[in-house]
Amino acid sequence: MSKRPGLAAMVDGLSPPRAVELAEESGGVVVDVRSERDFARSHPQGALSLRFSERGLADRLATVLDPATPVVLIAGLPDQLDAAVAQLRAGGFTVLGFVRGGFSGWNDAYLPIASFAEVRPPQLAEGERAPDLTVVDVREPMEWETGHVPGAVLIPLGDLRRRLDELPRSGPIALICEAGIRSSTAASILEGAGFSELLNAPDGTAGFRKAGLPMHYTRDEDS
Amino acid sequence: MELDVRGDVCPYPMMKAVQAMKKLKGAEEVVVITDHAPCLETIPPQAPRHGYQCQIEQTGSPEWRITLTPNGGAS
User: Fold this and answer.
1) Per-residue confidence (pLDDT) for residue A8, from 0 to 100
2) Tens of pLDDT, residues B28-71
3) String of DSSP letters for chain B
4) What ipTM did this prediction achieve?
5) Chain B: nearest CA to A84, how far in angstroms?
6) Could you read off the pLDDT of A22-80 as tens digits, one per residue?
7) DSSP state, A164?
8) Which of residues 17-56 of B touch A (CB under 8 A)?
9) Is A50 helix (H, G, I), strand (E, B) or coil?
10) Reduced to 3 states, what is the DSSP secondary structure of residue A131?
């Protein structure tokens, strides 16, 4: 193990196999703070997607993970790694270390990887989408009420883990939020829960709206 | 009230703006400073639901000032 200068020398750089071992031993999870696009392309199998943000990272993680769960980080940029460690520790998470070499290191170690297909707004439109496609919107109810993809089901990200039994175990599932960040986290949760055929909608509801595709509103469904 | 939410991503900027509008109940304007472009889509539809109007000004790249003004002006 090695320390990185600049990281307040307080977190261990772990070889990818050691990172896996440590996460397993401690009941922890690998959290990948790279972008949702990079995550979709390829990521450590079973890792949780949590795109880095300068603020609110611990709150966002606490929405989907008990702060008692230890974390091993994987990042793209050293500065983001430093800031992520600081935020998560301040938010009460235990950061066991980070994967040395980031995702490249993981890949070079031939550890299991996975990827998500991405789905574009026209492929989600009513009448256009695959008949067996389930669309799950993971935004908050107040966002859903201001317009959503027709036929989607609302499961806010924070409720997803306890509502897994509402989702089909076969057939493709597309995850959508506003801008592709929360839906990437949602897709990673489903992957960890054994779902397959997962798709992320990186353009989000914003992309659907911008494409001028017809949306549904809560009042349409009430009437 | 000024909310500097630079660095925050969805859904927090919108949720913080809604929380402020609910708290102030039209007593004063709310100014949201953000560098997260999706807020330009999520905050405006919330304004009329809480009795506010919304104006957006680009102040940087990327940075925006979203001004939420109570309908009829601050009381």
Assistant:
1) 43
2) 999 999 999 999 999 999 999 999 999 999 999 999 999 999 99
3) -EEE-TT--TTHHHHHHHHHHHHHTTSS-EEEEE--TTHHHHSGGGTGGGTEEEEEEEEETTEEEEEEEETT---
4) 0.90
5) 12
6) 999 999 999 999 999 999 999 999 999 999 999 999 999 999 999 999 999 999 888 89
7) G
8) 18, 37-38, 41-42, 45-46, 49
9) coil
10) coil
Place of tokens 């959290």: A31
Per DSSP, what are the bridge partners of residue A52?
none
DSSP A61-73: HHHHS-TTS-EEE
Among this protein's residues, is B10 annotated catalytic?
A: yes
Residues of chain A with pLDDT under 70: 1-9, 219-223
Encoded amino acid at A102, one letter: G
Map tokens 């000032």 to a residue: B65
Size of chain A in residues:
223
